Structures are given as structure tokens and as C-alpha cells.
Amino acid sequence: MAGSNNFTEIDDTHPSHTPYSHKIKAVCSLAKKKLNGVWTKKTLYKRFPILRWMPPYKTDDAIGDLLAGVTVGLTVIPQALAYANIAGLPTQYGLYGSFLGCLLYIFLGSCKDVPVGPTAVAALLTFQSLGGKGIEHAILLCFLTGVVQILMGLFGLGFLIDFVSGPVSSGFTSAAALIIVTSQMKDLLGIEASGNTFVDTWKSLFHDIHHVRLWDTILGVICIVILLLLRMVAQINIGRTEAPTKSDRIINKSLWVFGTSRNAILVVLCGIIGYMFCRNGEPPFLVIGTVPQGLPDFKLPPFGFSKEINGTTVVTTFVQMISDLGSGIIVVPLVGILENISICKAFANGKPIDPTQELIAIGTANLLNSFVQSFPGTGSLSRSAVNNASGVRTPLGGLYTGVLVILALLFFTPYFYYIPKATLAAVIIAAVVFMVEVKVVKPMWRSKKSDFFLGIVTFVSCLVLPLEQGILIGIGINLVYVLYHAARPKISVEKLFSRGGTEYLLLTPDRCLIFPSTDYVRNLVTKHSIRQGIPVVIDCSHIYGADYTAATVIESITSDFASRDQPLLFYNLKPSVSSVFEGLSPKDFVVFYNHDEVDELLKNRSCIKKQMEIMD
């Protein structure tokens, strides 16, 4: 941290005569100056991005945000209803997490395209973290997710997501998509099934397969087909792409709006069909049932609760709830910010992103969402794509999305009763099936087969084991890869001649010298130097850092070379690295920066050697 030239003098020469109030005032004055140094105008603009884009806000921006916000709102309402089902929670809790986060992100969010709310992956992780526990655990998980993400942001731990490589992310996302599809098969078929993993869910489905409801299955399949066709409609472009006419633009825009709003259109139509059937008796398919009307109460998340079971009051403490949630307290926040940062990178258009600010924004959204009984959420990739394609200009588009959700909770929840469960299952399946990253398999195989293996291991682990354990296995293997490469640097070996005709051995390590690699490098240098028996030059151009262990190894190597009376020189060693090595005062430690100096250094060393022999 940079120092400050502002000092506060505290006269402590006569402590017995100095009132404590004066000392307290002096300390408070110093603290105030420090805080003033932290909360500068630059920091405020960085931590509250709204201060940057709001002053130049124009009418065109308002129109773009309005259209995009309404379009995303029409998308998020049916998705929220469906994602609550993935999390194993009552339907209304999906809507509870879809409005406050959007509103908060207006002030704290740094990416205009991110709509905060429930996502398929976050809902699935919530379901697996709960392990059949109630809504109280889900709300507490939301609160703790926010706390962890805010702390990561405040302590600058956004770099941790860099340890989740592309193959691990692809394997995790693809497995999550298949698990989500599997979890919705029960509603698509109208049967009862449960399970915490992909394999367990399919076992449960086959166990109850003889109870399949025909009309639920027919309706679900038809809905999936319609959604996929409408997705294609959204991509249709009529007329010339270079210079389209006004009528072509109107038609193309209408087709895009129609295709993009496919979820809302289908849910409304199927809701009408469900309403008509319910008026005439029992519908032939299952409907979602009663959804409580109105906004949720704003209250503290449960840090413990009690329930009466069979006449006995069972008390669950905060510590027990933490224990029940397990590794989900860490995995859910990490995956949530990973999703969000991926969206920011996808729509950054080459601009730098601020992971710290996104951690604070998403963490604050989750923290306050827990006060309105929500489960964890983050930025949604599918809704971000809709937001971007709708022409969003600023994060203010989230205002209109949040208002639409609030209106739905206030006035339209009685009509949600008639929406078929198979329709919501179809909405989810048609959306997440494209999350299976098939396209990366071939390029990954051709590029680097070890990365392909890593992706496959992560994919299989996430299917067989609970999702959070699967991704931890993938990250663990990835870290082993990283540590192995750090411990095994490549060293090129060349025999060269100096201008004076002296033959020497040039060894060039390709990376930094740190403790896992030092013994390996020492063994290679020793082996080649003894085998050749000629002067050795180590090219340090690629060594940008070293540690104490490396310094001890260099000290040992120089001593060995001196005992063998074999010249050892270090070429182009960075001053910062050289100071680390010189800290142990190695014997005959010679550094040079010009190849022409090789002959002179070797000659000088020979002269010194002769002088020492004469003296002996």
C-alpha cells in the first residue's frame, strides 16, 4: 500500500500530563484522514458505477433500457417459476429472488448486460446443498453466499476464479445441464422421482416409470418442439443483410421479439388451456397450484428455527444449519461469481472488467435477497443474451425487469395456478440443453489431450457425485497440473562457442525458479555440466522470480561448480532475482549481461586460478 505524507503529531513527551481525550482526538483525526484517503472520488466512481453512466444519460438510452428491461422481464418470470422447481422449493421463491437483485445491480453493477436473478446452475447447486432441507436452509444459504462473495471482493480474492480452467468449466456446465434436464423429466412424465445425483435421479425415474401420465408427456414434448422452433424463428433474417429495407427491419425485429418472448407466450397459452380444463373439472395434466399473492416480507434470514414434528418441537441451531449446508457455502458463491464473470467477459467487447466490483455487486444482491426469502442467484447467461440483443444501454434496464416481477407478484399470481408443470419443465429443458458444450470437445482434443482428459473427468465426476464435489475434483486435478508444470520447467541445452573460440554449455530454463522446481533444475544442471565438463552459462532471461529455496539451491550449485573447478556464469539475471540469490552470498556467483563478456570472464577466472596456485 502506498504511504502517505500526512502525519499527525501526538505530543507524548509528558504522558502523565496529557489528557486521554487529546490522544483520542488525535487518533480519530488520523483515522479520518486515512478514510478520506480511501474514499476518494476515483474510488467512489469505481465502487458505484452509476455515478459514471447516469450524468450523460439520454432519451435514447432510456428507450433502449425500457425495451430491454421489459423483454428480459417477460423472460425471467417463467424462468423464475421453473428454477424454483429445480431448487426443490415452492414456485413463488423463484420470483422472490428476481426483483431486488435487479434493482441493486443498477447502483453497483459494472456490466450493463447482466440481469441478476435465479439461474439454472445456481438452483441446482441450491437443491444439492439443501439435501432435502427446507426453505430456511435455502434462505440462509443465500445470505451466506452474499457474505462470502462480499468478503472475497473486499479482500481482492476475485483471482480465485482463475483457478477454474476452461476444460473444468465446460465439464461442469455440461454435466449440470444434463442433471437439470434429468431433474425435469419427472414433471415432463408426470411421475414422482428424487435423487441428488444424475445416476440416482435416473434410478428413481425408472423405478416409477409405470406411472407415466400420457397427457403430461404429450404436452411437455409439444412445448419443447414449439420452443425450439420459436428459437429458430428468432434467428430468421429476411431480405438483404448489408442494406435491409425499412419493411425488412420491421419484419425481422417482429420475428426476433416473437421468438425471444417464446417462454412467456407459451406459458400464457398453456395457462389459458389449463384454466379452461380446470373450469370443467380435473385437468388431464398436473398444474403448479396455488402461488401466494403479494410481495414477500422483508425480514432477517433464519439463523436457527424450530418446527413441531409429531407433537415434538425440534430446534435447529445456526451451527447445525451451517453443518447441513456443508461445502455448498463455498461452492455456491464461487460458481455464482464464475457465471457472472463469464457473462461480463462475453459482453465486454474488449473492455477490462472488474471482478472485485462484480463480487461486491452480486454479493450485496444475494445478501439483501435473503431478506426477501430468496435462494442464491447470479447473472444469467441466457437473459444476458436477450438483454444485449434487445439493445440495453445501461444497468437501468434492471429497473423495468424488477418492476415487471413486482407487478406479477402483486396481481398475476392467482393465474399462475393453472400453468401446467410439464410446460415449465419444457421451458427449462429447451433452455439448458444448449448449455451442453459439445462444440468444444473436438477443438479441445486437437489442441491438448490432457485438457480434454481434465474436462471428461470433471464431467463424469459431476454426474456420478454431487455437483459441488465434482467441480472440486476438477479444480483439484487442475491444480495438480499447474503444480506439476511449475515443478518441471523445460530447460534447453545447447553447445556454443564464444567469439574467442571457447566452447561452453548454454542452459535456458523457461520459467521462474520456485521451491517445487529447484531440486529438479539442480539435478539437470549438475547432470549436463558433469557430462560435458566445460564452462556452463545459465540463461536467466525467462526467470522473473525466485524464492529462498531457489537461493539455497543456487548457493549449493555454485559451491559444487567451484569444488569441481568448473566455471559457472549467469546471463541476463534480473536485478530483483539476483538480490534474492545474493542474500546467501553464494561462492563464485558471476552475473553478466553481454555475450561478448564470456571470453573475458573466463579469462579472468583462469588468471585468478593461476594466482591462487602460485600463492599455494
From TrEMBL:
<feature type="domain" description="STAS">
    <location>
        <begin position="505"/>
        <end position="594"/>
    </location>
</feature>
<feature type="transmembrane region" description="Helical">
    <location>
        <begin position="255"/>
        <end position="277"/>
    </location>
</feature>
<feature type="transmembrane region" description="Helical">
    <location>
        <begin position="423"/>
        <end position="441"/>
    </location>
</feature>
<dbReference type="InterPro" id="IPR002645">
    <property type="entry name" value="STAS_dom"/>
</dbReference>
<dbReference type="InterPro" id="IPR036513">
    <property type="entry name" value="STAS_dom_sf"/>
</dbReference>
<keyword id="KW-0812">Transmembrane</keyword>
<feature type="transmembrane region" description="Helical">
    <location>
        <begin position="214"/>
        <end position="234"/>
    </location>
</feature>
<dbReference type="Pfam" id="PF00916">
    <property type="entry name" value="Sulfate_transp"/>
</dbReference>
<feature type="transmembrane region" description="Helical">
    <location>
        <begin position="138"/>
        <end position="161"/>
    </location>
</feature>
<protein>
    <recommendedName>
        <fullName>SLC26A/SulP transporter domain-containing protein</fullName>
    </recommendedName>
</protein>
<feature type="transmembrane region" description="Helical">
    <location>
        <begin position="453"/>
        <end position="484"/>
    </location>
</feature>
<feature type="transmembrane region" description="Helical">
    <location>
        <begin position="62"/>
        <end position="81"/>
    </location>
</feature>
<dbReference type="InterPro" id="IPR001902">
    <property type="entry name" value="SLC26A/SulP_fam"/>
</dbReference>
<keyword id="KW-0472">Membrane</keyword>
<dbReference type="Pfam" id="PF01740">
    <property type="entry name" value="STAS"/>
</dbReference>
<feature type="transmembrane region" description="Helical">
    <location>
        <begin position="397"/>
        <end position="417"/>
    </location>
</feature>
<dbReference type="InterPro" id="IPR011547">
    <property type="entry name" value="SLC26A/SulP_dom"/>
</dbReference>
<dbReference type="GO" id="GO:0016020">
    <property type="term" value="C:membrane"/>
</dbReference>
<keyword id="KW-1133">Transmembrane helix</keyword>
<feature type="domain" description="SLC26A/SulP transporter">
    <location>
        <begin position="64"/>
        <end position="458"/>
    </location>
</feature>
<dbReference type="GO" id="GO:0055085">
    <property type="term" value="P:transmembrane transport"/>
</dbReference>
<feature type="transmembrane region" description="Helical">
    <location>
        <begin position="318"/>
        <end position="338"/>
    </location>
</feature>
